[in-house]
Amino acid sequence: MKKVALIKGDGTGPELVDAMLLVLKASGAKAEFVTCEAGAEWWERRGGESMVPEETWAALEGADCCFKGPTTTLTGPGTPRSVAVSIRTRFDLYANVRPIKTFPNQVGPLGEVDFVMVREGTEGLYAGIEYRLSDDAAVAVRLITKAKSEKVTRFALEEAKRRGWKKLVAVSKANILKLTDGIFLDAARRNLKAFPGVELEEILIDNFSQQLVKNPQRFNQTVIVGTNLFMDILSEEASGLVGSIGMICSANFGDDYAMFEPAHGSTPKYAGKDKVDPTATILSAAWMLEYVGERRAGRAVREATMGVISEGKDVTYDLGGRSGTRGMAQAIAKRLR
Question: Which of 28, 64, 173, 278 is the most exposed place for a label (fewest CB within 10 A)?
């Protein structure tokens, strides 16, 4: 039996994770969940230099993977780095993956889309290297390395090959950030040589942003890869093509560890209101089941979720329904049974 470290998170995180566990129980999944503390709410009670306590690090290291509910990232000098960034850095989870695919009976105003966005997850501006030069000025360092650029672009190419797709799009601002994005693009070009039949398109981030809302179908059956901050922003923009960020599942992969999470935040203003769409959390869990070898259960959870969304009855308000978080989860669980 595989062991999964489970962080319920902040805000709406606990109710979303509880809804997800209800669905997984109905699927017959056998993974063992070990619940751990982490997040802004824990830190505000306990304090310290990290939002992840030492006992949680021990649980994470003793598990086969991690599932993290949405957590709150605090702003302002002196607050710790986010839970997600901390875990990605600790376990070298260099590839953050967000599939963007139109849901059944939920076609957006710009039409059907189907592509995958791969984000480098450990460096760039998220390295958190900042200096105050004076009372009136500060500087942030954008760290880009050959090693991480090699890893994430190879991962993206392997994802394209696995899906049978023929194109990789590399997003950059290399006409301005000539050294850092130069390293990133050089890595993509080198790795491309080992993937005959896959085409590389290099595109500037401003043009890509325009094309994403002008003609998103041009990216269908394509893997899109970029550096940390660029792809964080672009993947959230892309989520609007299929509904909202509340529907986007996400996974973070390293060489021998993974963390699964909904792509959205903790939405504390909705905490306890049984309102938030559980789709991203449940689909992230389905992906996690497949990762730990429970492919049948993972596939069943995904199909049941899509079935409920397709019917459009027992879904949350953002999908045109009147169900709450738990009600939608119960409908998915019923379909599984």
Answer: 28
Q: Quote the CA–CA distance of 324 and 331 in Å, as a whole number.
A: 11
Please check whether residues 95 and 159 belong to one and the same domain.
Answer: no
* pLDDT tens sequence across 21-30: 999 999 999 9
Q: In terms of residue numbers, what domain contains 285?
A: 1-99+255-337
CA distances from 260 to 161, 292, 308 (A): 22, 11, 22
Rg of the chain, C-alpha, whole Å? 20
User: Are the C-beta atoms of 331 and 308 separated by less than 8 Å?
Assistant: yes
Strand segments (E) across the chain: 3-7, 32-36, 65-68, 95-101, 114-120, 124-134, 137-143, 167-172, 199-204, 223-226, 249-253, 258-262
Question: Looking at the structure, do residues 88 and 146 belong to the same domain, yes or no?
Answer: no
Q: Would you say residue 148 has pLDDT above 90? A: yes
